Amino acid sequence: xxxxxxxxxxxxxxxxxxxxxxxxxxxxxxxxxxxxxxxxxxxxxxxxxxxxxxxxxxxxxxxxxxxxxxxxxxxxxxxxxxxxxxxxxx
Length: 90
Fold this sequence. Notes:
The chain is mainly β.
């Protein structure tokens, strides 16, 4: 069973080619093993079209990114894929 946790400290999410994709807002955790399965990212307006994500009228869309797409987590979350490759994983 997966549990979604929200984060108080939001971090920018940046692709390998330097594009800001959105903001980390939470994570999905497997409650059997207590490991993070995916990160929940609120996608920026200017990237929605690039990732071919369905637009929402009232709020920014959220996507879940597998943890193997993450390179480094620090002041920002750096992905180990570029925007074109990320589109294939969304």
